[in-house]
Amino acid sequence: MSTDTDSLKWDKTLKVGDIITAYRAGVHRIVRITQRCSGAGYSPLIEYEMYLNAKYQKTKRGRYFECCASYCQKVTMKQAQEWYSEESVEVIARFKRLYAFLEEQK
Length: 106
Prior knowledge:
By secondary structure, this protein is an alpha+beta fold. It has one helix spanning 77-104; strands at residues 19-21, 27-34, 45-52, 64-68, 73-74. A five-stranded antiparallel sheet has the order 4-3-2-1-5, with no helix packed on it. A hairpin with a 5-residue loop joins strand 1 and strand 2 (27-34).
C-alpha cells in the first residue's frame, strides 16, 4: 500500500463558494469541504450544490451531492471559453465527416 501523499491529486486551493465540475455532470458550487482522514492518500470530501445540469441548463436549487476532491475542477470564464473552442472544433469535425459520408452515398 502506497503512503505517498500525492497518490491522489486534487486542487488544494478549492474553497467554499468555488464554481466547479465534479464527479456528477454539470456545474456546481462548493458548500462544504470535509477532511476525511489525516494521513497519506486522502483527499477531502467536497459537498456541492448543482446549479447547471449536464446540458448547462439551470436546475432546481437544493440538489446537493458529494464526491472526492480529486474529481473536482474549478471553472473559470477562461476555461469555459477554451471548452467552447474545443467543442466547436469537434462539432465541426463531426459535421465534416457526416457531409463526406453523404457525398459518398450519391
